[in-house]
Amino acid sequence: MNGSRVRDPVSLDAAARGRGPFVWRFNRFHRWTHAAVIVSFFLLVITGLPLRFSCAFWSGPLMALLGGVESAGFLHRVGAVVTFLYFGAHVGYVAVLFVRSPDRWSLFWGPDSMVPQPRDVVDFWNQIRWFLGFGPKPAFRRWSYMEKFDYLAVFWGVAIIGGSGLVLWFPEFFAAFLPGWAFNVATVIHADEALLAAGFIFTVHFFNVHLRPEKFPLDTVIFTGRATLEYMEEEHPEVMESVKENLHRTPSLDEVPDTPAPPPSRWATTVAAILGFTALAVGIALIGMILWAVTFC
Amino acid sequence: MRIVDVVVCMAGLAGAASVDAQQAGGRCDLCHAELEFLRQHTETLEEASALLVPSVGQRGTAHDERGCADCHSGYRRYPHPGTAATASCAECHPDPATEWSGGVHAVDAAAECASCHGVHDVASSAGLGETPGLREMNGACVSCHFEPRMPASDPHADSVACTACHEAHGTRSPGDPEAGVHPLNQHATCGTCHDQVAAEWERDAHREAVNETSGPPDGGTSLDEFDLGHPPAAPPGCTACHGAHGMPAVSGDGAVFGRSVVAACSGCHEEYGESFADSYHGQASTLGSGRAATCQACHTAHSIHATEDPRSSVSEENLLKTCRACHPGAAVNFAGFQPHADHADRERYPHVYWSYRFMTALLVGVFTVFGLHTALWLFRVTLDGVRLMRAGTGTREDRS
Q1: Domain count, chain B
Q2: Calpha distance B300→B297 (Å, rounded)
Q3: A252, A283, B215, B255: which could form a disulfide with B290 (CB 3.0–4.6 Å)?
Q4: What ipTM does the predicted assembly reach?
Q5: pTM
Q6: Which residue has the higher pLDDT, B92 or A204?
């Protein structure tokens, strides 16, 4: 610092840093769905991990903390039900958007779609070039290729882990039309795919959205639904056209994407910080436990 | 002690060189129950203590009906003549004495009658039927045999005497092929009480192994000591699975018993123990589930047979029935589950082998790609940050 410049204290929250005003990015449906994902995912990982690594020193105490194997099994199934519920709700949400939206195919193709497109391959390539110093940082659209990967990974994960989990939950039923070895295969797939999911979320996802130096230590945009203009400029430059068109509007609580929003309330900021930091801490602790088990068992 | 007795005793001893014990009324206790008195007439306290018989005249021992002279003959006069002698127990109890001379306690007279039975307060074997008597008797064994302990968690603690399994008088060491606790003889010894189990076990594959064994193998007293090499140095007796002292109760905590069974079976059937530990049944039981199946749930406890044997609970004919004991609604294919699948065995478990291979490749691939992605990102931002700091600026606006 050269000391001549007076700066506002830098916010801990990446979404609140830089020039304003706040702009809407996620509506309440997105936020509640993501909250359900967080809660059920942690519940599933914490109750499933000790079984996967029953050989590790920490699995016994963790099981005891969960009230024993039977109790952990029950909680795991609760997590599964929540997962199937949010998954169903999201599919329903997309269906309603599709029916109601005048420009319905933009959901599945175009700059605002979650579906991977040639542009994402270009972005990925340019990102690698930027990493290596061969070009500028690519300008992302509304959803970067990393966000699309995270989003679609939930579909893949719920289908694979959820499907194999159902087979293992109701083996007596599935034995009517699946061969016996399917239960062995389901065990392998369920365990390893879950390990992939947990390992990915608690390292790659955490780094991409919270822990990389630009955002460290936390980005609460998924909890409060809004981020500063400068944040949007940096993370998603290609939506700025739409944001600028709406800048003249008065900040409102209507949660319309790209329109100005009032700053999140103190209450919302506090809840978001507690939830976010807790999730980060627990996730990183779980990574430590996984690494120990993978190395020493 | 009443004052008159003292007077009589003192008078007798002080007054004459030779006193007929009759003069003291045949009352050995007049002298031998009084440490203070004995001390005055001996050189050392130890000598006095050895002569002290505090229980003389008390009742409630097995020798209630016996007088001092029945064992100690020739002591009626004082000073006691040189011909006075103490009879051996064998004179009245010849059979136990003979048994004893063939047992391990007779070697160097490691333990004699009195070591266990006491001397003057000799206990009655009638007391063995009740806990206090049992404890007293087991206490006599423990006074020398501190280890192995019999923890209170053992179902036999406080209800079964040491001598129920270990010969009372002709006690043999566990490695002795004639010992009741030798692996070859355990079925008979334990079968004394557990006769149904012993009968069941007569038809078990492990029993066949016992029958085939020739020559005196080495035995052991507990799972730890039991040598279960390949091939086993000893056939599996009851203790091979149940353990000896401190065995968990079958009716107790299912998880504790189940884990002990898994540990015992895995001692010989190592690869099955490993594949079991990798299965859901194994993981859940390791973590304390008393419901998850352990070895005996599928293989039975005492009627174990090879899978190819039609009598086996896991034979093709019986497998589904066995699964249904816990999974009542299991459909036909249910029994096709491979509870001992090994993901490294491509020949026997191709589906598990290939799915494990695929999943491993997927995990390695994803974490490699995204690990690099993350590392490169960190590298780029760190490098840019260092440059900005060197340039003396650091605001977001300056980055472009």
Answers
A1: 2
A2: 6
A3: B255
A4: 0.92
A5: 0.81
A6: A204
